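Re: the request from the purification team.
They wanted to know what the chain is likely to look like in 3D before they choose a buffer screen. I agreed to run a prediction and write the result into the notebook, where they can find it.
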Amino acid sequence: MNTRFNPRASGGIGFHFEHYVQATYLLSLITKTPCEFDSLLTVEQLELQAGHAYYTDDAVVTFNNGTMLHIQCKMSFKINNSSRFVTTIIAMWKDHVSAQLSKKETRFLISTDKLSAADARTGIYILVIARDSADDANFFKKIGINKGMYEKFLFFRNAIMQHTADVDNYRVWNFLRSIYVEEKDFTREASVAERNLELQIQNYLGKTGNGRSLLNEMLVYLSQKNGSAATINSSTIDRRLYFLFDRTLKEPMPNLIETGLANRDRYMLLLSLVSDWVPLITPLPPNGFLPGSTQAKLRLKTIFIKSMDVTFTHQNWHLRSLSR
């Protein structure tokens, strides 16, 4: 696996191509903003190196509508009859068949740093045609008039047939509809993809944040979690990442006036002042006040906060600015 070393990263850790790809989905999970793959969906869960459960396992994404995306990261990927291509397609075919049996809508993404001109022109295009075709007959009619596209199609079909002979035109077409291929230059110097990811983070944080620093924090986190084949969701994610992404951290912290919270020094306050309710967990001082030039009064109908267990209804939070 190609590794790009970033001297700005904590501890000099080298980041793999797959860590950058995973970071694009981790960003959606943390910020609850649409992901690059599908602008209508946000990420609910990210499984890393999930070989114990799937064959296509560099990352398995579960979206907020329940659909899944299996991601395989490959350097200099080529659509041909090589064993590397065949094993990738067979792994996807197995997950595709399993998903159909369980009635789960599943898509597949091959993310690579480099595609040949022929693959970019014809290999990916047949996948687009498959999605745009009304049925398998319509699909084969479209690719049959182009020799180059039909030859690329045969690489997919022949790869499947090395695993099973139980295939027909409909099953192959239905499988191809679920496959996507993307080219990302994450491992190259002056990477455009890396810069775009940094800008997404920066745009979310606003002028006061540091997109470069937070991207490095995400990559360090992912490099650690890949080794343990972690499953990341809102319950398991490192709360420190929520700290780093909270846009209110760069603003003056308001004073808090609230009664009825016993043992304040042992409790944690879940405070969220941004519109999309990105959580910020911050220690509450013994006197119950947070420093700052602005006072705010929070009226909570239901709040029980102890350690990291929190039950609350954020619709019942009321914020009113008060002059000092």
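For the purification team: Residues 247-322 form one domain.
Please add any questions underneath this entry.
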